[in-house]
Amino acid sequence: MKFFFKILPIILCFLLLAAHFGRADLLILQIISILIPFLLFWKTKVTAFIIQACLLLAGIEWIRTTIYYTRIRIEIGEPWLRLAIILGAVAVLNFATILVFRSKLMKEKYKL
Fold it and tell me: What is the rounded distance in angstroms from the CA atom of residue 39 to the CA atom of residue 68?
C-alpha cells in the first residue's frame, strides 16, 4: 500500500499530461503519456531514469505551455495571472514528483 501512495503522484502527473495532449489533439503523445506509468511495474534503474526524464520533459512542457498561453492572454487583454499560477504549479508538481525516487522505499524497489 505504501508503494501505491509513492507512485500515485507519478500516475497523476502523466494522466494530467495526457489530458493536456488530448486537448491539443496530439494523440500519439497522449497515448505515450498514458502508457509511461506502466513502466513502474518493471523495477530497474533504467525504468527510474526513464520516468524521471519524462517527468522533467513534462515539467518543461508545462513551462512552455504557461509562457505560450500567458502571452496570448496578455496580447488580447484578458486576465493572465491565474492561468500562470495554475500552470506554474502544475510544472512545479512535475518537477517535485521526480523526488519520489529519492525515498527509501523507491530506492529499494528500483535498486537506486
Answer: 31
pTM of the model: 0.91
Domain enclosing residue 94, as ranges: 2-109
Query: Across residues 84-103, what is the average pLDDT?
Result: 96
Do residues 13 and 6 make contact, with C-beta atoms less than 8 angstroms apart? no
**pLDDT tens across 23-32, in order?**
999 999 999 9
Is residue 77 over pLDDT 90? yes
CA–CA gap between residue 111 and residue 96 (Å, rounded) = 20
Total of domains in the chain:
1
